Amino acid sequence: MSELNFTGNALRGSRAIVSFSKDFDLTPSAALMKEMLCHTFSVPRGTRKSKPFIDRVVSFTLADSKVWVRHYQINPGPAPAAADEDNRKKNGDDDDNLELIEIGPRFVMTPIVVLEGSFGGPVVFENREFVSPNAVRAAIRQKGAVRAGGRDMAKTKRMVKKREVEREQKIAKMTEENVDDSVLFA
């Protein structure tokens, strides 16, 4: 939980740099996801109520067939020493002392299916590795049903065996009553 204590803060109306890992360029489906995420999360310059500066970074990483999203604030780092500052001004490097502070939210998206239309149409991308939580719960329920069926079968077998033993005991008792004591103790 200490890892989830985000200390940074983004200004209201600020725009973000949308950053993608190199894995988004490897396959056509990943490139499609990159384009969709870019259209969803990037704010065009000059949009109404947006500020003219950028103070945060939204990072997207593709790993394990999932999209990992992290949100960072761009923060000026500690002030450099006077000698280092003079060297940077000569070289034109003023952005070296920036640091990224994670501000959240942090989440993971599992792409399941991409359709050509808004809520329908032909399937453009489908994640074949995805197993829905309903299917997992159904499998667990089915496994429990098989175990319960096994218990029911064992209970039925016990009842049948008990009835057979009782019938055999009745037959033995009846034959015992039919035998005469004079024949037994002769």
State the helix count. 4
How is the biggest beta sheet arranged? Answer: 5 strands, mixed
What proportion of the residues is helical, as a percent range?
25-40%
Distance between the termini: 90 Å
Order of helices and strands: EHEEHEEEEHH
Uncertain ranges: none
Keywords:
alpha+beta, 186 residues, two-stranded antiparallel sheet, 4 helices, five-stranded mixed sheet
Protein architecture, described:
- With about 190 residues, this protein is an alpha+beta fold.
- The chain folds into two domains: about 1-130, no CATH class; about 135-185.
- The protein is built from four helices and seven strands, in the order βαββαββββαα.
- The chain has helices at about 30-40, 80-90, 135-180, 180-185; strands spanning about 15-20, 55-65, 65-75, 100, 105-110, 115, 125.
- Strands 1, 2, 3, 4 and 5 form a five-stranded mixed sheet that branches. A two-stranded antiparallel ribbon has the order 6-7.
- The protein is elongated.
- The mean pLDDT is about 85.
